[in-house]
Amino acid sequence: MYGGKQRADDKAIKAAAHDLKAAVQIFNTNTPDLQTPLMCIVDYRGYRLLCSSKVPLGSDTMKLGSNDGGHTLKDDCTELRNKVKNVCRVLNLKKHIVLPTQRGVWGPGDLEGHVGLDGKHYVVDLARLFPPEVPSRSEARAVYYHMLRPELVKSNPVPLSSDALTGWCGRDREHGPSNNIAVRDCSRRLHTQVIPALAAALDRDSSPETTWDLSLEFHSHGVNMRHLGRVKELVTQPKASTDLLFEMVVRVFKNELRQQLRDKMEEIKVASEEPYRLLVVNFLNTIMQHSLADEAVDRPFEWLAYIGVLVWKKFKYTLTEADNADLLAAQSAERVLARVAEKMGITLSSSVQQAILVRNQGIIISTQDLEHMTATAKSMSILGLAEGMMQYYEVQILMKQKRAQQFGPAGAGGVLGMLKKANMLLSRAMSLGHTETHILLARANIEAWLADRY
Fold first, then answer.
1. pTM value?
2. In the predicted model, what is the mean pLDDT of residues 51-75?
3. Helix, strand, or coil here: 47?
4. Which residue from 65, 170, 190, 343 has the highest number of Cβ atoms inside 10 Å of its Cβ?
């Protein structure tokens, strides 16, 4: 589906993430009695698994949407339709016609609404909830995996159609062209206004001491991480430029390692872990400029050429001489190695970790240094939100009972530790779109307690 006649696992991985993201956004609309399954995505050996809680659906529970590519479209429950309508209005999505049924729908045509066996209302198949960004001519099927960010869609001057630019409404001559134009205008606004504004914000906040979560910075502005290269071209401050460069390099190495793991699995088709351990070790040594040119003097040039190809392929960005200097600077490879290992669920031996800390450029990794290769998982942000609110309520109870002092003024087990953990969890939840009044109030109370008491 995602690569046309060619298999495209990397694109399917993106689509799985969109399903999780859409479920979070629907939850954030606070639409009463509309359920989505709890979901998480698990990455292992280059593949991604989308895990969903079991929901009570059956062969005859679907009352809204299409499960046959739009040939038939159900609209058999007014109450469920109104709930989906509310979701779409909050998310700035418009009603549109899906052909050949000639019926109007809210959200994508392949979103399914169910009245479950328990009588509750559920929505599933959410990956295309948000409209696509206008694709390049060479990547026409990107309309199924390069979606616009929720933050951008919600800030758009006019509502957008989830099915714009796709075959779901391609033959709607009356409304299809205007729906497509609206999404094209939004994509243009992304590139001409939003991305430059993000670059300016990064420059404004940039200093040698600045630390930031670039994913959160990008997403809060409504910018996808695939536009790292474009933002990198626009920033002017050295700190911002360097951090964006390293983010790109870490991501291309991560994606390349995933691809090599998938290729190895297709090649050997065995459960033994040793071939994969050897592949990972060789790849990590490549990051450290080993396993490249035979002559040590040629390794930096071959390493830069290797990175340059990967970065161009992924981000359409050409490394500059200044970028090459940054990458060849002391501690650069160690910094990239640590980040790639973290993102891939790789635990290295204490000796290698210590070498990374002291910026030892002579690190050579062996299979004995590869202690663990575990799956990595990403869950719905509501889980972190729930944990943060639980910590907040526990502190409230302790303070009301005037027993806070028994926990001590500091430490991970004390009230201060609980407050800091709640503050961190709620801050992250807010950055992911949880801005309901009770969450803002909880965060404000925590900040006040931290300022007044500690």
1. 0.85
2. 93
3. strand
4. 65
